[in-house]
Amino acid sequence: MTSPTDKPNDGGVPLPVVPAGASSGAPAEFPPASPAGRGMFGNQGTGDVSGYGGLVRQRQPIEEASRPYGGYFDEVRDALEEAYPAFNDAIEKVVVDRGELTLHVRPERIAEVCQVMRDDLALRFELCSSVSGVDYLGADERRLHVVYLLTSMTYRRRVRLEAAVSVEAPHLPSVTAIYPTADWQEREAYDMFGIVFDGHPSLTRILMPDDWEGHPQRKDYPLGGIPVEYKGAEIQPPNERRSYQ
Amino acid sequence: MTTSNYASERETDEGRVFTVTGGDWDTIVSGTDPINDERIVVNMGPQHPSTHGVLRLILELEGETVREARSVVGYLHTGIEKNLEYRNWVQGSTFVTRMDYLAPIFNETAYALAVEKLLGITDDITERATTIRVLMMELNRISSHLVWLATTGMELGAISIMLYGFREREYILDIFETITGLRMNHAYVRPGGVAQDVPDDAVVKIREFLKMMPKKLKEYEDLLSGQPIWTERTKNVAVLDVTGCVALGITGPVLRSAGLAWDLRKAMPYCGYETYEFDVPTHPDGDVWGRYQVRLAEIRESMKLVEQALDRLRPGPVMVADRKIAWPAQLAIGVDGMGNSLEHVAKIMGQSMESLIHHFKLVTEGFRVPPGQVYVAIEAPRGELGVHAVSDGGTRPYRVHYREPSFVNLQALPAMAEGGLIADVIAGGASLDPVMGGCDR
């Protein structure tokens, strides 16, 4: 019986051969590269001891939608294409999923696109409902995504804009000049993900203390937590418990 | 004032007269009131009885006039969004209910709707479950507006209304306790339906409440609406028009008090709101008085909705039929509080090993949610409450972001306060109805 990799098998079930697709030597990798749920007892796998843990789930790539999208989505795309000459350069991908339209925008173009989305009479996305970040660690090279949810109060429509930046150069233009409401929400995205919005009037931390180090919502930032004693037993903090994925 | 060679003075019958023969007029004027030009910076909060929670305001004052106002938030940040990523999807309800602690049912419903949309089971939610959600949300809206009335009254010096508002809110919390087992932080609305059915005595209690409430509302109006101090403190105070609201992303009663009838229950209906009859109250003025009027009117509209929802309650399941999602927990009140019913325990422990395995897997591991992202928004008492949920296909949320109306609305405070009096900062801030638990999450 040979060790599957050079790394010592630290706590998981010893395996005679490397499971298909596995690289860590643990019974199974985390399906998505998420550090959530690294287990107790030094277990790096799923904690599944049934033997089926060697199965690796493949992450489905996000599919580009094809015309017609259905609903008002085609109208929105046509209107944006007409009003914004650099459409083909700025829009990387159009995704329709679960009845929602997502335009993946090149980060340096995001402010221009927002400007057109707000001002064009056929689009009229007056309200920027939400700005938030998502960290797709391991799934995307430009792992930090900024997600804008625009609402047209005139036409009662919603559109999601998504811009992806890398950790090494997490810069994209601020949309505060177009949507003043994005001010605090961009500050939150900076605070939690370290995304830098160029042109923001005062990009400082908002929820975490000013002298905090790191950006807590990134996937490689640990949850922390301390063990709790309950009826004589020590309960691990949630990020150290053995868990399913 | 120092004597100078360009302004001499003489006494006349009408008082002292200055003769100015040149020089700088400003030096003369400022010489009479050295306080006038001086700006002081006042730090208000985060522990202050009238900032509506742990909100900190930094005010630059000139006399009693506010020249600049900045708000500082984050004192109640508890990392709920990060914590959610380490629990399974069902456990999420228990966390999100603690965000905006005055509107827990809304937090839960928005979360449940988002998870259901990710699962693609939105159409499978039973009619009874949806009706119960509407019923609970509208009761919650009333209780939230009552707390607004109570705390705003207190902050503006009307202590009686504070007691009355909290008293009636307690009645609603009693109803919640009958239905969910808890006064607050219910974790009642869950992905797939609601945790348990509405008991019959709760319906009786709600009917009693609906009978009692109109009288109470009249009492509040008798107490406040005609009262000169209340009108002085609220009319033409902290005005924000529709343009300002939309630019700053302000939704909810504040936007409606400026005259725009934007209500997600009408504009982008969810939970079958399009089948209910109710109006969206608005007010033309966009001041604190308008917000007071709109919220009182909304309590009345919510009572209409509660009544309609009660009439629609037909017997039926309150959870989706899919046993891969619905918890098998038949809950009942036992000697040690709420827990699995004795019949259910007897079944899984004595009769069916498969049931036990299934129960165990579903509770410890949870269900898997297909990868993707959704945004679901509902009309909370404070405005648009949006949930941006991302799944990677696992049993835990990959990312959940709450678009909290308290957080977004607080950005309007400088626009309302600057140029006004310091006392109006309190009125303006209170009229936004920020809940810091929701704002900071």
Give your account of this protein's structure.
- The complex is a heterodimer of chains A (245) and B (441).
- Chain A has 245 residues and is α/β, with parallel strands linked by helices.
- Chain A has a domain of 126 residues: NADH:ubiquinone oxidoreductase Nqo5 subunit (Beta Polymerase, domain 2), CATH 3.30.460.80.
- In chain A, a hairpin with a 4-residue loop joins strand 4 and strand 5.
- In chain A, the strands form three sheets. Chain A has a five-stranded mixed sheet with strand order 1-2-5-4-3. Chain A has a two-stranded parallel sheet with strand order 6-7. In chain A, strands 8-9 form a two-stranded antiparallel sheet.
- In chain A, 15% of the residues lie in helices and 21% in strands.
- Chain B is α+β, with helices and mostly antiparallel strands and 441 residues long.
- Chain B has two domains: 36 residues, no CATH class; 320 residues, Cytochrome-c3 Hydrogenase, chain B, CATH 1.10.645.
- Helix content of chain B is 47%, strand content 15%.
- In chain B, a hairpin with a 2-residue loop joins strand 1 and strand 2.
- The chains are: A alpha/beta (245), B alpha+beta (441).
- Chains A and B meet through strand 3 and helix 4 of A and helix 2, strand 10, strand 11 and strand 12 of B.
Draw up the topology in text.
The complex is a heterodimer of chains A (245) and B (441).
Chain A: H1 73-83, H2 87-90, E1 91-97, E2 100-105, H3 110-119, E3 127-135, E4 144-152, E5 157-165, E6 171-173, H4 182-193, E7 196-198, E8 228-230, E9 233-235
Parallel strand pairs in A: 2-5, 6-7
Antiparallel strand pairs in A: 1-2, 3-4, 4-5, 8-9
Chain B: E1 7-12, E2 15-20, H1 25-32, E3 39-44, E4 56-62, E5 65-72, H2 80-84, H3 91-96, H4 104-119, H5 127-155, H6 159-180, E6 189-190, E7 193-194, H7 200-224, H8 228-234, H9 242-247, H10 253-257, H11 264-267, H12 288-312, E8 331-334, E9 337-340, H13 342-351, H14 353-364, E10 372-380, E11 383-391, E12 399-403, H15 405-409, H16 413-417, H17 422-432, H18 436-440
Antiparallel strand pairs in B: 1-2, 3-4, 4-5, 6-7, 8-9, 10-11, 11-12
